[in-house]
């Protein structure tokens, strides 16, 4: 009689990792024009490979979470392979929104949601020197901005139709005189036949308010420290806005 001893080694089935868990999603803005997401629930031991769908881009790392950046607009999903080369199911959707330029209006002032890179347009023509985050409208028209992000994209905004209220009241507008022309060291503001204080703002070519004040009949402003260029003065009387221009030499 023969006795044969047979030893068998049973290798356990490798564990398939769970689908990654989606954490905080950061949407694009004009500082970081691509999105990002925190992916959690990754294998706690060994090296893993995180696979992005679509495009199949793979990130290899360790640890239970990872920040995935540079995500363009669209829907993204992730699966993970553990050190045994077993791959999980796909994660839930990561939705990255399209970066959008939006302008809003407050009286005659338009404001872009982009702090930099603006070029304002009226109809289809660029407004010379209008590159700030805000723009003060001086004539009626259809206005929008185009935001340029270097090496990325140019993004046009929505369009707002603007009617400058002061155009309707030519008589009162003609009561306001600015001199001399051009201005050097002093600007005189004269408001004929006026007996109530009228507030005003001085706005430079970037749309920035650089000085405020009020006038009853006449006031003088020192302008020696103003940069050379075109300026606007916005007066508000009740609910009516008047815009005047002056040139600093």
Highest-level CATH class of the largest domain: Mainly Beta
Overall domain count: 3
> What CATH architecture of the largest domain do you see?
Sandwich
Task: Quote the distance from N terminus to C terminus.
Answer: 119 Å
The oligomeric state of the chains shown is single chain
Can you tell me the CATH topology of the largest domain? Immunoglobulin-like
What is the 3D shape? Answer: rod-shaped
Gyration radius (Cα, Å) is 31 Å
Percent of sequence in beta strands? over 45%
Largest sheet, strands/sense/barrel? 5 strands, antiparallel
What can you tell me about this protein's structure?
- With 249 residues, the protein is mainly β.
- The protein has 3 domains: 76 residues, Immunoglobulin-like; 60 residues, no CATH class; 84 residues, Sandwich (Immunoglobulin-like), CATH 2.60.40.3080.
- It has 1 helix and 22 strands.
- Strands 10, 11, 13, 14 and 15 form a 5-stranded antiparallel sheet that branches. The chain has a 4-stranded antiparallel sheet with strand order 4-3-6-7, with no helix packed on it. It has a 4-stranded antiparallel sheet with strand order 19-18-21-22, with no helix packed on it.
- About 2% of the residues have low confidence.
What are the key terms here?
single chain, 249 residues, mainly beta, Immunoglobulin-like, four-stranded antiparallel β-sheet, 2% helix, 48% strand
């Amino acid at each position: 009689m023969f006795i044969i001893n047979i030893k068998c080694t049973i290798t356990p089935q490798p564990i398939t990792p769970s689908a990654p868990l989606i954490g905080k999603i950061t949407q694009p803005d004009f500082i970081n024009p691509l999105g990002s997401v925190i992916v959690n629930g990754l294998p706690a031991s060994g090296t893993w490979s995180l696979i992005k769908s679509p495009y199949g881009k793979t990130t290899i790392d360790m640890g239970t979470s990872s920040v995935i950046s540079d995500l363009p607009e669209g829907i993204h999903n992730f699966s993970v392979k553990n050190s045994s080369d077993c791959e999980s199911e796909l994660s839930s959707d990561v939705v990255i929104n399209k970066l959008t330029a939006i302008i809003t209006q407050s009286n005659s002032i338009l404001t872009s949601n982009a702090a930099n890179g603006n070029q304002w347009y009226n109809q289809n023509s660029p407004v010379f020197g209008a590159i700030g985050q805000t723009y003060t409208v001086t004539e009626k028209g259809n206005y929008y901005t185009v935001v340029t992000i270097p090496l990325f994209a140019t993004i046009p905004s929505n369009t707002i139709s603007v009617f400058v209220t002061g155009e309707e009241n030519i008589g009162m507008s003609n009561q306001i005189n600015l001199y001399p022309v051009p201005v050097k060291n002093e600007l005189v503001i004269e408001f004929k036949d006026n007996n109530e204080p009228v507030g005003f703002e001085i706005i430079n070519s970037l749309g920035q308010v650089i000085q405020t004040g009020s006038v009853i009949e006449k006031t003088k402003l020192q302008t020696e420290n103003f940069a050379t260029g075109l300026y606007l003065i916005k007066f508000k009387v009740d609910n009516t806005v008047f815009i005047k221009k002056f040139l600093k030499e």
